[in-house]
Amino acid sequence: MGRMFFMARLFPALAFLLASFPAFPGDASAWFRKLDKNHDGYLDRKELAGMRRHLAVFDQADENKDGRLSPEEFVKAESLIQEARQRRAVRG
User: Fold this and answer.
1) CA 69, CA 47: separation in Å to the nearest integer?
2) Which of 8, 24, 33, 43 has the most CB atoms at less than 10 Å from its CB?
3) What is the pLDDT of residue 29?
C-alpha cells in the first residue's frame, strides 16, 4: 500500500517537472532519436505523451498532416515552442 501511494504521488510530480522544462536544449536530432521509441524515424502523439508544449504545436508543426513529426517537423515544433516562450516573456 505504501509503495502504491508513493508511485501515485511520484508520477504526477515527474510529469509536472517535465512539462515545466523548456523545450529540449542542444541537439534536437539527439532528442528526436531518444523520443522515437519505435525507431521508425517519426514521432507520433503517443511518443510525445506528457510533453504538453510539443503536443500543443503538433498540428502546426505537422506540415504534411500525416499525424507524425519528421525530424524536420520536430525542429519546427521546437521553433514554435521557442517563439511562444519569447512572446510570453515580452508580455511579462
Assistant:
1) 10
2) 43
3) 84
